Amino acid sequence: MPENNTTNPAYTKALxxxxxxxAELPGIGRKTAERLAFHVLKSDKAEAMELxxxxxxxxxxxxxxxxxxxxxxxxxxxxCQDPSRDKSTVCVVEQPKDLISLEKTGICKWTYxxxxxxxxxxxxxxxxxxxxxxxxxxxxxxxIRELVMATNPTVEGDATSLYVTSLxxxxxxxxxxxxxxxxxxSSIEFSNNxxxxxxxxxxxxxx
Length: 207
Description:
Layout: H1 13-23, H2 30-42, H3 45-61, E1 63-64, E2 71-72, H4 78-81, E3 86-93, H5 96-103, E4 110-114, H6 132-140, E5 146-149, H7 155-167, E6 174-177, H8 193-201, E7 204-205
Helix pairs in contact: 1-2
């Protein structure tokens, strides 16, 4: 059978290529990709170049904060640099998107540590694939007094939280987790501010 080709012969090669690239983005179907491509085509050159520059900047300027492993354009991100932040309390999240969601509540005064995912052996993700070693190194520096486990309330998130906790059983650090107002199987990224605020304020210790 001939290969299924979704390109439209009525479009130019450049336009087809742009549509294909938009269609590869999460949540973007073919029709939406076409609308986006035509929007870029119809916009003036300066606007299109600004879009291209913004995409380029994301890939060339953003790196990993050497302290918390979140996104940053500097060696140390603004949150880690902020002198008003409580450096003795570190909230552990799976992804930078989770950090952003927690920050939107406006009540977090702590700092963070981004693991870069969760432990999932069936997906080939082991503890050494995450930034757990960097977290342990931060703890050994002696400044951290409380670790708030804010992994997602999923099987993988809970397993990751328990693994990190097991590494610190003999330490004097207080380890807490967000209150279970978050529905099981949900994601911090998509939870509203009210639910997250309640989960933060109602956090309890991990036994």
